[in-house]
């Protein structure tokens, strides 16, 4: 038992062992903790290293498009303004971004100007800037701009020309033709990068701003055609440095200031056109006499002053000279007789004086417009007799005197003869057979005598105006044979009293008929309803009696009906109020007693107003004064039996000066400053 007892540990040994075990356990735990901490640290270290490695790899494998964009940006900084490239929304920024990121062709970005791909890249960029600067997304036809094709295929054939870009044999843009294409914006400076351009056509668009001076780099340019846009500013002097330019066409814009002397350096110029830039002022510069190749000079509708230069006749090839609607004065220079090739001479609407003798020798002249000046000339058998090619002669509103020469009606090409507003006297000539003349306007002269029967020899005349002369006698029956007439004005003459001739009923093509103040009496004939094309019927200031014929209801094109100042009676037919285009109805100063059937003026007025705007209607009747003859709630003026003048005492005469700018066709009916219908 003692042996066993001796083998058992003592209390001290047990405590000592426990202490050793505890220390051992603590040591083990500390070791495990240190190992865990180590492993955790190792994992963190690995994660950090991996992250850094990934970041390094990513940084070394940048997006190719980003890299290309940086190269493009660096290169374009050498050809475009840095400000333009960095400006948000600028055409240059859009073009840079497109060629960097969206251009499927992905041309190699050049590093130097002598790189083989330099021109291909720079012209593609410049064409893209042009697209963005002129609103390409809104063009009527984008002509494949910004496609993956080469820019030499950014075009489209239409019926007449190739639209878009056409290249030369070196694949350089040679022509850019974009007429009537809804181009809106400004011409970018980058246009100057297209140095091989020969033709630039942007006519009839909405191109605005000034012409960029960088265009001076286009030394191969032969044609710049920018008519009918919104270009502004002064005419650039640098245009004179474009020594190969042959056609410079800038009409219908907003240029201002004087014509620069430097334009006289464009030694190859054939066509000079700055018409309809009403703020162009000053004189025609003498330096233009150096342009010895000039064939056409168009400077009409400006504010040019001074005289027509004497050197204007020295251009051997001059065929077209247009100086209309300026403030030019003095006489036509004698040197103009040397311009033997001249076929068009437009000097109308100036302050020119003297005579027209210098024109006598211009045998190739086809169009002569000298109206609205102060020319003085005695008409005789030699007046313009040698101008056998003349098609249009308009010398209206001058001081021409004498009698009307018969040889003017023997010119076998003359289509328009307008001599109204002069001081022509004597009788009308005996008219020879003529199948060419279409317009004969002789109103507001002092022509006397009767109209000869031979008037019908003018077989193709559509426009005959003999108003406001001193003609007497009767209307010749032969007028009824002039079935081509669409316009017949005989107003304000001294004809013998008589009815509206029945032979007029053959003139079924008439659109306008004025017999105002021609001493017509009797009834308005029923056959008047057969004039189905009639727009204006003026029978004012005659002695017509009876009722207004019911057949007038058939005149569905009728817009202007002047029956005032007659002795008409009865009521106005109700159906006249239903004429769909009626705008003017004058029935005042008659014996008319009512409107419509059963004198139903309210219904008549409802129809007259109808769908028309009130401001469009002029309707006068005898509904005023102390004893009104009829009731009219829709009349714009009620005339009465007092001393007041109806229609302000105006003759209410429709304007009958048909102008060449409209091809001698009616553009508008102007009865007064306030009453105009287009």
Brief synopsis:
The protein is α/β, with parallel strands linked by helices and 678 residues long.
How does this structure look, described?
The protein is of the alpha/beta class and 678 residues long. Helix 3 (64-76) packs antiparallel against helix 5 (91-102) and helix 5 packs across helix 6 (118-133). Strand 2 (162-167) and strand 3 form a beta hairpin. It is flat. The strands form seven sheets. It has a 22-stranded mixed beta sheet, with no helix packed on it. Strands 4-6-8-10-12-14 form a six-stranded parallel beta sheet, with no helix packed on it. The chain has a four-stranded parallel beta sheet with strand order 31-33-35-37. Residues 1-6 have low confidence and may be disordered.
Which helices and strands occur, and which strands form pairs?
Elements (H helix, E strand, L loop, with lengths): L1 H6 L3 H50 L3 H13 L5 H5 L4 H12 L15 H16 L21 E3 L4 E6 L5 E5 L6 E3 L12 E3 L4 E4 L13 E3 L4 E5 L12 E3 L4 E5 L12 E3 L5 E4 L13 E3 L4 E2 L15 E3 L6 E3 L12 E3 L4 E3 L13 E3 L6 E4 L12 E3 L4 E5 L12 E3 L4 E3 L13 E3 L6 E2 L13 E3 L4 E2 L15 E3 L22 E3 L6 E3 L12 E3 L4 E4 L13 E3 L4 E6 L11 E3 L4 E5 L5 H9 L8 E4 L15 E2 L30 E2 L5 E2 L1
Parallel strand pairs: 3-5, 4-6, 5-7, 6-8, 7-9, 8-10, 9-11, 10-12, 11-13, 12-14, 13-15, 15-17, 16-18, 17-19, 19-21, 20-22, 21-23, 22-24, 23-25, 25-27, 26-28, 27-29, 29-30, 30-32, 31-33, 32-34, 33-35, 34-36, 35-37, 36-38, 38-39
Antiparallel strand pairs: 1-2, 2-3, 40-41
């Amino acid at each position: 038992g003692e042996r066993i007892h001796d083998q058992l540990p003592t209390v001290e040994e047990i405590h000592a062992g426990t202490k050793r075990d505890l220390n051992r356990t603590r040591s083990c735990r500390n070791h495990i903790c240190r190992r865990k901490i180590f492993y955790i640290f190792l994992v963190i270290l690995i994660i950090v290293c991996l992250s850094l490695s990934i970041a390094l790899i990513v940084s070394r494998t940048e997006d190719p498009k980003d890299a290309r964009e940086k190269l493009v940006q660096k290169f374009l900084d050498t050809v475009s303004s840095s400000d333009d490239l960095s400006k948000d929304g600028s055409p240059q920024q859009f073009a840079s971004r497109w060629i960097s990121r969206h251009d499927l062709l992905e041309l190699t970005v050049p590093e130097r100007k002598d790189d083989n791909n330099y021109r291909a890249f720079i012209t593609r960029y410049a064409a893209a800037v042009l697209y963005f600067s002129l609103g390409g997304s809104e063009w009527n036809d984008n002509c494949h701009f910004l496609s993956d094709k080469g820019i030499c295929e950014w075009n489209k054939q239409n019926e007449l020309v190739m639209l878009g870009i056409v290249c030369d044999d070196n694949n350089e843009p040679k022509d850019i033709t974009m007429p009537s294409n809804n181009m809106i914006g400004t011409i970018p400076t980058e246009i100057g990068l297209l140095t091989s351009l020969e033709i630039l056509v942007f006519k009839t668009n909405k191109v605005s701003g000034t012409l960029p001076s960088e265009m001076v780099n286009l030394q191969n340019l032969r044609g710049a055609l920018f008519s009918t846009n919104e270009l502004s500013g002064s005419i650039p002097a640098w245009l004179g440095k474009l020594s190969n330019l042959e056609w410079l066409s800038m009409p219908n814009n907003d240029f201002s200031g004087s014509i620069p002397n430097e334009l006289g350096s464009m030694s190859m110029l054939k066509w000079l056109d700055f018409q309809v830039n009403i703020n162009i002022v000053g004189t025609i510069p003498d330096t233009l006499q150096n342009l010895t190749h000039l064939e056409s000079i168009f400077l009409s509708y400006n504010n040019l002053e001074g005289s027509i230069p004497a050197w204007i006749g020295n251009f051997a090839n001059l065929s077209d000279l247009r100086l209309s609607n300026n403030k030019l004065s003095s006489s036509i220079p004698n040197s103009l007789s040397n311009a033997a090739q001249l076929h068009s001479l437009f000097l109308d609407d100036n302050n020119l004086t003297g005579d027209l003798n210098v024109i006598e020798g211009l045998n190739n002249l086809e169009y002569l417009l000298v109206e609205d000046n102060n020319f003085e000339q005695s008409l005789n058998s030699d007046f313009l007799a040698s101008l056998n090619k003349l098609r249009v002669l308009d010398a209206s509103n001058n001081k021409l005197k004498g009698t009307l020469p018969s040889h003017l009606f023997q010119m076998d090409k003359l289509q328009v003869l307008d001599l109204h507003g002069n001081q022509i006297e004597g009788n009308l000539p005996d008219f020879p057979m003529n199948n060419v003349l279409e317009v004969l306007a002789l109103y507001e002269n002092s022509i006397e005598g009767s109209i000869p029967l031979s008037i019908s020899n003018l077989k193709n005349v559509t426009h005959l105006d003999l108003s406001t002369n001193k003609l007497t006698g009767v209307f010749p029956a032969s007028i009824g044979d002039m079935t081509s007439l669409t316009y017949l004005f005989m107003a304000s003459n001294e004809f013998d009293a008589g009815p509206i001739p029945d032979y007029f009923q053959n003139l079924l093509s008439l659109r306008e008929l004025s017999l105002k103040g021609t001493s017509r009496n009797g009834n308005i004939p029923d056959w008047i309803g057969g004039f189905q094309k009639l727009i204006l019927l003026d029978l004012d200031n005659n002695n017509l009696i009876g009722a207004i014929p019911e057949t007038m209801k058939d005149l569905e094109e009728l817009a202007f009906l002047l029956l005032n100042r007659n002795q008409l009676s009865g009521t106005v037919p109700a159906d006249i109020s239903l004429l769909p285009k009626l705008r003017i109805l004058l029935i005042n100063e008659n014996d008319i007693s009512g409107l419509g059937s059963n004198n139903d003026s309210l219904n008549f007025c409802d129809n007259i107003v109808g769908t028309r705007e009130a401001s469009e209607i002029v309707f006068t009747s005898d509904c005023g004064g102390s004893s009104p003859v009829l009731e009219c709630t829709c009349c714009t003026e009620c005339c009465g039996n007092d001393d007041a003048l109806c229609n302000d005492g105006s003759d209410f005469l429709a304007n009958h000066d048909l102008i060449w700018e409209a091809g001698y066709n009616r553009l508008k009916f102007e009865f007064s400053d306030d009453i105009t219908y287009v």
